[in-house]
Amino acid sequence: MGQIGILGGSFDPFHYGHLSIAKAALKECGLSKVVLMPTKVQPFKLGKKRASEEDRVNMVRLIAKKNENFAVSTIEAFSQDVSYTYKTLQALSEEYGREKLHFILGTDSFLSIETWYRGEDLLREYSFIVGVRPGYKENETEEKMRYFQEKYGTKVKILHNRVLEVSSTEIKERIRNKESIRQFVPYEIERYIDEHGLYQDLY
What we know:
Radius of gyration: 17 Å
CATH class of the domain at 15-28 and 82-164: Alpha Beta
Number of helices: 8
CATH superfamily of the domain at 15-28 and 82-164: HUPs
Order of helices and strands: EHEHEHEHHEHEHH
Strand content: 5-15%
């Protein structure tokens, strides 16, 4: 088994922005597999609803079924404990091997990762792949990468793909307004959302 990328997120719903980052990581970083890992969603704003863990897992499974280099992990989605990235990667290391894991994340998360639970251990022990939006904090991201490399010996790869401007919030708003979301999500996701009546009553 080769190098493994771990892409976590609420995936509420999974959209072309997520797919773009996953495919870029496969291509640019020589990964053999990207594991899509839906996170457990905590209550968010009084009265606002999200898709269930089961629905979000089902949606990413549809994507993995269509893409042979994708897999799905439910290690966080169905956990009864508070999820911490460090603990999650430790558990996944037992399955894949620590040296083979690469955590995929966006710019804002990467810039703040040192403040996360056991952030310094994360930076010392794991490798990272950062998906950036062109022109968005590029200099800051490169400076932080060099800082992490010098202080912790962190291995970091910055993706150069065009990260799509897709918002889960916008997708939900369009669904609520009975507008098409075809340009934002893969067909399988659009069909699942429609068949299960997701995001119809957001407020």
